[in-house]
Amino acid sequence: MTDIDYDNKVFLAPMVRIGTLPFRLTALEYGADLVWSEELVDKRVIGSVRKYNPVTKTIEYWKGDKLTFSTHEKERGRIIFQLGTADPDLALQAALTVKQDVAGIDVNCGCPKMFSVQGGMGAALLTDPDRLEKILKNLVQNVGLPVTCKIRLLDKEEDTVKLVKMIESTGVKALTVHCRTKETRSSVPANWEGFKAIKKAVTTIPVAVNGDVMCYQDIAKIKAITGANSCMIARGAQYNPSAFRKEGLLPFDEVVRTYIKKCVDLRNIYQNTKYVLLSMSTDPKFTKSTLYRNIQSAKSTLALCEAFGLESYYHEVEALHASRAMEAEAANAEEAKENEEQQQTKETLHGKHGLSGEQDIDEKGEEPAERQSKKLKV
Q1: Shared domain check, 124 and 44
Q2: Residue 150 annotated as binding?
Q3: How does pLDDT run across 8-53, given as a tens digit for each residue?
Q4: What is the DSSP string of 156-175?
Q5: Is 258 helix (H, G, I), strand (E, B) or coil?
Q6: Does 353 carry a binding-site annotation?
Q7: Which end of the chain offers a freer environment for a tag, N or C, measured as fewer CB atoms within 10 Å?
């Protein structure tokens, strides 16, 4: 098992529809140490087929005609796959499906959305510790990757402390705590004081704090208050992924262009790119601007690029992609031709020697018995 250092680090939080590959790579470029994928439910992952995309140079997992997950070598060793699950066996099957392409597995124990809770996943696991314990132990013992989990506070401090001690005992490598309860929305300040008892109770693994960590410059203050080992940034990164920079935030326009270029490079579906762009700012000036309306009305990646003056970049990359596609097609054709020739040679040799398909013939057309006979004569 490859170890991951979760101590004294800054993480990109798992965010549904935000934490796709282009956004994760943007966060890494700006200084994130580890990046969490968006939550993916076990049943969606199980049965996904792994494929290499030579055009974008990505590893992709497809289930039918739907893309489940994609990753790139630039995030190798730093991508944590977050799993939504309510079943130990399904959790393990899903984790094993993507094991070779992720650095670690994180179990979502904090999502308060109805879909997760009704299915026994996410925040439902906070009050079902027996189930959570079985899930974590099964993963820790069998997946062969570092396992972590992300929780929220319970209403009573003593219940939270009891929960985190159980989690620690399962053998997980780290724990992240969102300092709000499942009922508390982000408009309510995070309860950093509530983190202190957790940090005191958990002594053998790093504990990261999440909630109102808006940028790198907040980290020292929040660590001083909470005693946290590491920090996880969510909304701050959503609004401006340069939140991870030690040097401070970059201008919005510059960051957006960096993100869009990665979307073009990776052929991200325009609907997701558009969603992320519209989620990056709640500033009334922006939401009433012509640029915002142009993003809203965009029906393609090219239209989004045009809104930011990146149409030339789009066409350059598309030309590169077309060239890669032609090279891949030619390579596939050559491989198919070689395979066909090898098969024809094999069939010819089998016919010559009157052998069944199960019998072996070497490259010289000799049967195993013939080779053995020659060795004995020598």
Answers
A1: yes
A2: yes
A3: 999 999 999 999 999 999 999 999 999 999 999 999 999 999 999 9
A4: SHHHHHHHHHHHHHTT-SEE
A5: helix
A6: no
A7: C
14 is in an annotated binding site: yes
- Positions marked active-site: 111
Torsion of CA 326, 332, 333, 334, to 10 degrees: 110
Paired residues of 47 in beta bridges: none
pLDDT for the residue 52: 98
Q: Are residue 317 and residue 225 in the same domain, yes or no? A: no
Same domain, 117 and 196: yes
Residue 86 lies in a domain: yes
| 12 and 29 Cβ atoms separated by less than 8 Å | no
Does residue 27 lie within any of the structural domains?
A: yes
Are 320 and 221 within one domain? no
Check whether 371 is labelled as a binding-site residue. Answer: no
Question: Partners of 208 in the beta sheet?
Answer: 176, 230
Buried b (16+ CB within 10 A) or exposed e, 225-246: ebebbbbbbbbbbbbbbbbbbe
Q: In what order do the strands lie in the sheet with 66-72?
A: 49-53, 58-63, 66-72
Mean pLDDT, the chain, integer: 92
Domain boundary among 231, 251, 271: 251
Domain total in the chain: 2
CA-atom Rg of the chain in angstroms: 26
15 is in an annotated binding site: yes
On whether 178 is known to bind a ligand per the annotation, the reply is yes
Question: Do 41 and 119 fall within a single domain?
Answer: yes
CATH of the domain at 131: 3.20.20.70
pTM score: 0.89
Are 243 and 372 in a shared domain? no
Dist CA 340 CA 235 (whole Å): 54
- 3-state class of 39 per DSSP? coil
Annotation-wise, does 232 bind a ligand? no
Does 130 share its domain with 241?
Answer: yes
Read off the tokens for 333: 């054709």
Domain assignment of residue 224, given as a range: 10-251
Domain boundary among 200, 225, 251: 251
User: Strand, helix or coil at 83?
Assistant: strand
Q: Which token pair is 160? A: 């939270």
Which of residues 378 and 88 earns the better pLDDT score?
A: 88
Strands 66-72, 58-63: pairing kind: antiparallel
Q: Are residues 362 and 225 in the same domain?
A: no
Residue type, 61: Y
Cα-to-chain-centroid distance, residue 200: 30
Residue 16 annotated as part of some ligand binding site? yes
In-domain check, residue 189 = yes
| Per-residue confidence (pLDDT) for residue 356, from 0 to 100 | 52
